[in-house]
Amino acid sequence: MPIGIERINARRPQPNSRIVFIKPLPGPTAAFAQDFLERVAAICHPIMKANHLSIMSLEEYEPNPEFIGRNFNAGEIIQLVLKTPYSGHWMSFRSVVMVMMHELAHCVQMNHSGAFWKVRNGYAGEMKELWAKGYTGDGLWGRGKTLLSGEYQGNGEFEAGEMPRSLCGGTYRTSRGRKRKRKGGAAEEKKPLTYAERQQKRIAKKFGTNGVTLGDDEDNRVKLEDGKNPKGKPRVAKSARGRELRAAAALARFDQQQEEVKAEQEEGDSASDTESDYDDSKVKAEDALDLNGSKILDGKGHGMIKVCEGEDVDDVHVKEEMQELRDINDIAAASEKTKIRTAMVDKQLLSNEYQDNQNLSDEASTPLVEKTPVPETAPTTNAILPKGPSVELTCPVCSMSNDSSSLLCMACSHVLDVRKVPRHWKCKSEACAGSLYVNSEDYGLCGVCRTRKPD
Question: Which of 26, 126, 19 is nearest to 77 (CA)?
Fold first, then answer.
């Protein structure tokens, strides 16, 4: 957790101790977005802890065709887009996590230089190692999928035309005045002064340069003593004449310093007529604007400046990152399809095993009947009789082919024949309006939108 920040009496355990706030956009999908961001925060915790990274606020940003993530003040706020801009579908979980790695690298390097890509690729490599180990988070977030996470973790790559212009929308920092350089080029690098040089500089600043011993200069002594010209040097340490001479010299030095300060002020005023220490017009011109045209402000109401523009689509590193994102989506989609096929095969094997057990039990319960001898005949060949055409039921919801004796679809659990399953119910939520999906009586949540069964 960032220095100076501590959460007390939190209502529920946090997915990442180095992220203070997680803020989804308000609306009907806020619960999904909250779960999405918490999953992202949970899986990023080992990387943030190992690299000493902290985020004040991880926020959801509205879908747009320009970017997926952006960073403010080197990690004070990181914003992520969770939905595709046109269809509104949830993005692939792994693709958003890789964008998170990009924005975490901006906490170290707020540009897209070679040093930035080195950091970003390091974080991405660590994340791939966590995926290979099956890591999803610590504690509560290490239990795999939830009812909500299934809505976005199974998504594949972007649909045609939905890939944003760039993954990163840039980095921003709070606006602050910057002094302009004086005419004449950049200042030369100053060499460190020795102790003796620093003492001489201090004396020269306080008493001036080219000074002489008090009483040695006859002309100055006559001026200090009001035109008198006594013989000999005064006893500076004790005599009244010496004290008066020192006081007069101090007043003379003070008047001289006043004249120098006044001259410097006049010179500065003349210079300020042509240029200013702060270029206010330039700061205002650089104030960053959001996609809707409004000025981007920090938590204190100060304007923000765009430090780094979006990515260059022709850059080699950017092309590699986009290709890596596509490969990750393909792998995630293939993995999800493999899991579905495996579940279908397991279910079919269980069904066949149950049928075999039933046949064995029927044979065991059949009484033994004495067989009559069959007269011997000429040997015949074992011909395989053709079987009749098998009847299959196609699910109208997911188009899955099921056995004719199946009551529920083996893929989506839709009730295939309501006449055979009289105890069923249909969801009346907005998400299921017009849907053909029918739930079985023993299902407490809708198989499509996860809405609770009405009482």
Answer: 19
**Residue with token string 């010209």:** 229
Rounded to whole angstroms, the Cα distance separating 329 from 336 reads 11
Alpha-carbon gap, residue 85 to 94, rounded angstroms: 18
- Residue range 304-328: mean pLDDT, rounded: 82
- Tokens standing for 131? 């995926």
Give yes or no for residue 177 having a pLDDT over 80: no
Contact 167, 322 (CB under 8 A): yes
Q: What is the pLDDT of residue 306?
A: 87
- Indicate the residue type of 440: S
Percent share of the chain, pLDDT over 90: 20
On whether the CB atoms of residues 153 and 93 are closer than 8 A, the answer is yes
Which residue from 420, 398, 340, 149 is spatially nearest to 440, judged by alpha carbons? 420
Instruction: Find out whether 168 and 67 touch, Cβ atoms under 8 Å.
Output: yes
Measuring CA to CA, which residue among 102, 56, 98 is closest to residue 77?
A: 56
| DSSP letters spanning 71-99 | EETTTTEEEEE-B-TTT-PBPPHHHHHHH
131-168 burial, b at 16+ Cβ within 10 Å, e below that, comes to eeeebbbeeebeeeeeebbebbbbbbbbeeeebbebbb
Indicate the residue type of 35.
Answer: D
* Helical axes 93-105 vs 114-132, angle rounded to 10°: 140
Which segments of 193-298 are extended strands (E)? none
CA gap 312, 89 in Å, rounded: 26
Q: List Cα–Cα distances, 383 to 380, 386, 388, in angstroms.
A: 9, 9, 16
Better pLDDT: 407 or 102 = 102
Where helices occur in 313-404 by DSSP H, the ranges are: 316-365
pLDDT in tens, 271-306: 444 343 334 333 344 678 888 888 888 878 888 888
Q: Would you place residue 86 in the very low, low, confident or very high pLDDT band (cuts 50, 70, 90)?
A: confident
Taking the C-alpha atoms of residue 389 and residue 386, their distance in angstroms, rounded to an integer, is 9
d(Cα 414, Cα 427) in Å, to the nearest integer? 12
DSSP 124: H
CA neighbours within 13 Å on the CB side: how many for 226?
3
Calculate the alpha carbon distances from 257 to 201, 215, 217, 250, 262 in Å.
16, 21, 20, 11, 9
Residues 182-194 have pLDDT tens digits of 555 544 567 888 8
